[in-house]
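Our preliminary data section would be incomplete without showing what the modeling component actually yields. Below, a chain of 151 amino acids is followed by its predicted structure, encoded as tokens that our downstream tools consume directly.
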Amino acid sequence: MSDTVNGQTGFGDGAVQPPLRGVLRLEGAALLALAVLFYHQLDAGWWQFALLFFVPDLSFLGYLSGPRIGALAYNCAHSLIGPLSLAGLAQLTGHGDWTPLATIWAAHVGFDRMLGYGLKYGRGFGYTHLGRIGLAGRTGQSAIPLSSDNA
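Predicted structure:
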């Protein structure tokens, strides 16, 4: 895929272009702030928040099976579908103890978006909907080797 669109480099990889990238990062910051505020209102333990905040990042282990599986695992753990579904189930089933978990999960998603870590493409970890990150952002190459079927 070409990395040049209208004479600009870096946007041919499917990433959102500025200024919308900044808007999406601001949305992430707003989500993080709202989730932290909501968590405070739940009166749940902050030790639990600190302990579980980075649990979605265990999805990185999917990259041990290659970039496509890694992207799928990462995206499942870093999309709002998961925490919103968990929060909905908590309300529908009366399991209020799941609500803090959903809130922590949503806060993590907001945190990552705020930092520019978007949902991943199967080309490699460094290719996200918010732009390239890591080694892929600096050199135009994937930080994780691509398999031959990911052309």
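The helical segments are 20-42, 46-52, 67-77, 81-93, 99-115, 134-139. Residues 1-10, 142-151 have pLDDT under 50 and may be disordered. Preliminary results of this kind motivate Aim 1 of the renewal.
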